[in-house]
Amino acid sequence: MIDPALLVIAKAPVAGRCKTRLCPPCTPEQAAALAEAALCDTLASVLATPAARHVLVLDGEPGAWLPPGLELIEQRGDGLAQRLAAAFEDAGAPSLLVGMDTPQVTPARLGSGLDLLRHGNDAVLGRAPDGGYWAIGLREADGRVFSGVPMSQADTGERQRARLEELDLRPAILPALRDIDEIADARAIAAIAPGGRFAAALAAMGLDDEAWAA
Question: What's the domain range around 131?
Answer without folding.
Answer: 5-213
